[in-house]
């Protein structure tokens, strides 16, 4: 029997939602300052409206604070799922008012794509978009990549933080308390921000010859999109705009840093555990899958004969596999050219997108730890079949220490992996139903569901609304790794049918 | 054959040769005007190995990257926004269509006076570029770009006006005031409890 949530449950959910919206309202002040500084009056007024909307929702949600119950697991999951639905809805206001998007659904799509660090975009005439609006799009990457909840947890938390932290698809607590873990994550991000922007800005100024202010602008935007494995870019031709292998290398370093788990960042910062991280199942898996996808793409591109020289093939292949595997979605070729990457090169890129980065990173996809555990489980099963009946197969694996692959863990890992595959296939089927070829439909679906953002051209302002909604849901589900969304569905069902 | 007949025959041959040359020569020198969309849709067709020189029109957008090797990199957009920017009342016409262009700095000395190419509130210079379309250039790690050999500016950069949206601003201020009032009322009620 379903139990209808009480008024107290709603008050708890509203209270925590409200506190998160206050934090997001404060962050929206940054693009407002940018717009005022740049005398961009129209975007500035839209940011005032957005801050007002966030603040009013926050004030209304916290108007009836809870009296008795504490935030439990299901509340936390519902808070997270709703946060990731409502923030892009309100956050899409400046984009919708900019006149660069055809309708509110397109604006919502772009904001969701930004927040989930996907990078698919429906903005039209991006090259004339106001810098403050571009900053907002990229700041959404930063907020989403680092985690809105993490941002809120850094400022307030108490005992309620753990469920919110896990709800946002983060699996490891680096430090004893969730608040200190959240602060560590933001600390790592801010250090990367300073060094990343300085490095990219220096390349843009001294190598590419951009003016100092524009160098800083490009450095900041590409940092947000690269480190948060987002994939938006300030110009319509993505990273291809820069025509520079050095700049691409700088962006690649950030993509790799973004796809690394914050646990790995922590281990690398604390010297003594560095060697240990290389033994981790997750690290070994991501190195293996990346190498495999890279070889497949190289063979595919060589077979297609698209690039004459080895240098061109290597540069394009390496950058795109890295972009796909880290879930970033930067590209140095037009989408029409990417669509021509058929055969093995398509397989390699699509596989890299689906596999994704490390758990507890800003990347999307199935995640390397799950892939590693699934492969380990399959290997153990085969061993059990082949070895004598009384032989004992070791189920241990190394991941920040020796751990045991229990049937419960295996089931959970396999279930989430299968859900990803099902989501990719359903998205692909919807694309095919609208007449897109199988390869293109599958590519775009994987890109949306794994929060990558590479496109073969299906994501376009003229795309069918139902397909747009499908990709939107894929981005949301993929980012939250299903659990929080299922909790929200369960909560709504209990509310409607419970007693 | 008498001299007159020979001359007549020579004249016919010369006329035919001139006619053939007349047809052939302009064909070689004829301008091949393509759009940016053509280059994106069929990039290989206009590659320098097939067509030595093409002409492309459009708006220079983004940044003028003045590289140490004496060339300037920019982006050429060949979309509807070049002629009808959104801020000037133009309609939405899909995503931008752009290619990279490499311009030798000495080809356009006036470039040094231009701080930025087109962007927000600025319609970039409209240009007619002549050059070689280097598709997947092995010398530049597989990049595709127009190697410019001639440039003609037919539209100077134009400033566009950004008008403040008073309605969103007023609505935003109202929502902020309402939020502040609600938060204060909540706080007062909590203190009373």
Strand order of the largest sheet of chain A: 1-2
Oligomeric state as shown? heterodimer
**Could you tell me the mean pLDDT of chain A?**
91
Biggest pleated sheet of chain A = 2 strands, antiparallel
Structural class of chain A: mainly alpha
Question: Any low-confidence stretches of chain B, pLDDT <50, length ≥5?
Answer: 18-28
Strand content of chain A is under 5%
Per DSSP, the total helix count of chain B is 3
Helix content of chain B: 25-40%
**How does the helix and strand content of chain B classify structurally?**
alpha+beta
Largest sheet of chain B: 5 strands, mixed, barrel
Shape of chain B: elongated
Provide a compact summary of the structure.
Chain A is mainly alpha-helical and 499 residues long.
Structure, described:
The complex is a heterodimer of chains A (499) and B (193). Chain A has 499 residues and is mainly alpha-helical. Chain A has 22 helices and two strands. Chain A has a domain at 275-468. Chain A has helices spanning 7-37, 41-61, 73-91, 93-97, 104-115, 131-146, 148-155, 161-167, 178-207, 212-227, 245-259, 262-269, 274-279, 281-304, 310-325, 335-339, 343-355, 368-386, 407-433, 438-449, 465-480, 483-497, and strands spanning 396-398, 402-404. The radius of gyration of chain A is 22 Å and the shape is globular. The N and C termini of chain B lie far apart (128 Å). The model of chain B is unreliable at 18-28 (pLDDT under 50). Chain B is elongated. Chains A and B meet through helix 2 and helix 15 of A and strand 2, strand 3, strand 4, strand 7 and helix 3 of B.
């Amino acid at each position: 029997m379903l139990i209808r949530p009480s008024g107290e449950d709603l008050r708890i959910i509203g209270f925590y939602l409200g506190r998160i919206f206050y934090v997001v309202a404060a962050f929206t002040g940054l693009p407002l300052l940018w717009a005022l500084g740049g005398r961009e009056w129209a975007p500035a007024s839209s940011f005032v409206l957005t801050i007002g909307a966030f603040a009013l929702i926050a004030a209304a949600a916290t108007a009836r604070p809870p009296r008795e119950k504490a935030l439990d697991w299901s509340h936390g999951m519902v808070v997270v799922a709703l946060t990731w639905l409502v923030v892009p809805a309100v956050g899409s206001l400046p984009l919708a008012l900019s006149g660069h998007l055809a309708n509110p659904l397109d604006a919502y799509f772009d904001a969701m794509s930004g927040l989930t660090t996907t990078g698919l975009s429906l903005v039209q005439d991006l090259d004339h978009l106001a810098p403050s609006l571009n900053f907002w799009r990229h700041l959404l990457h930063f907020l989403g990549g680092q985690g809105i909840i993490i941002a809120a947890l850094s400022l307030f938390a108490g005992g309620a933080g753990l469920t919110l932290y896990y709800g946002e698809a983060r699996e490891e607590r680096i430090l004893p308390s969730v608040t200190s873990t959240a602060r560590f994550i933001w600390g790592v991000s801010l250090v990367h921000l300073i060094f990343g922007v300085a490095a990219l800005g220096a390349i843009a100024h001294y190598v590419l010859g951009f003016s100092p202010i524009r160098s800083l602008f490009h450095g900041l935007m590409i940092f947000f999109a690269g480190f948060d494995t987002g994939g938006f870019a300030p110009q319509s031709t993505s990273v291809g705009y820069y025509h520079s292998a050095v700049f691409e290398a700088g962006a690649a370093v950030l993509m790799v840093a973004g796809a690394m788990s914050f646990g790995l960042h922590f281990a690398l910062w604390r010297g003594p555990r560095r060697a240990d991280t290389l033994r981790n199942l997750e690290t070994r898996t991501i190195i293996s899958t990346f190498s495999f996808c890279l070889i497949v793409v190289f063979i595919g591109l060589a077979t297609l004969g698209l690039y004459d020289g080895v240098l061109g093939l290597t540069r394009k292949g390496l950058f795109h596999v890295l972009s796909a595997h880290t879930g970033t979605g930067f590209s140095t070729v037009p989408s029409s050219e990417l669509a021509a990457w058929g055969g093995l090169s398509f397989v390699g890129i699509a596989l890299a997108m689906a596999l994704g980065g490390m758990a507890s990173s800003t990347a999307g996809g199935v995640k390397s730890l799950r892939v590693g555990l699934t492969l380990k489980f399959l290997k153990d099963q085969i061993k059990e079949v082949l070895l004598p009946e009384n032989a004992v197969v070791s189920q241990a694996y190394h991941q920040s220490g020796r751990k045991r692959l229990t049937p419960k863990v295996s089931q959970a890992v396999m279930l989430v992996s299968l859900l990803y595959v099902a989501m990719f296939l359903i998205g692909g089927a919807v694309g095919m139903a609208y007449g897109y070829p199988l390869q293109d439909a599958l590519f775009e679906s994987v890109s949306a569901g794994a929060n990558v953002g590479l496109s073969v051209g299906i994501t376009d302002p003229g795309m069918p609304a139902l397909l747009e909604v499908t990709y939107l849901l894929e981005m949301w589900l993929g980012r939250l790794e299903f659990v929080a969304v299922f909790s929200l569905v369960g909560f709504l069902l209990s509310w409607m049918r419970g007693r | 054959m008498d001299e007159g007949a020979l001359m007549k025959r020579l004249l016919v041959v010369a006329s035919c040769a001139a006619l053939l040359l007349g047809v052939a020569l302009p064909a070689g020198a004829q301008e091949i005007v393509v759009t940016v969309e053509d280059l994106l849709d069929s990039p290989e067709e206009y590659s320098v190995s097939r067509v030595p020189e093409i002409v492309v029109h459009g708006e220079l957008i983004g940044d003028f990257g003045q590289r140490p090797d004496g060339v300037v990199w920019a982006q050429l957009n060949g979309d509807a926004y070049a002629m009808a920017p959104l801020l000037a009342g133009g309609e939405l016409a899909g995503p931008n269509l752009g290619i990279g262009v490499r311009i030798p700095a000495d080809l356009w000395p006036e470039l040094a006076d231009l701080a930025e190419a087109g962007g927000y509130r600025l319609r970039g210079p409209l240009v007619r570029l002549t050059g070689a379309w280097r598709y997947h250039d092995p010398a530049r790690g597989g990049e595709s770009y127009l190697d410019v050999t001639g440039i003609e500016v037919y539209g100077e950069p134009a400033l566009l006006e950004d008008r403040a949206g008073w309605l969103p601003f007023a609505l935003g201020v109202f929502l902020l005031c309402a939020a502040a009032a609600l938060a204060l009322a909540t706080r007062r009620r909590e203190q009373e409890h």
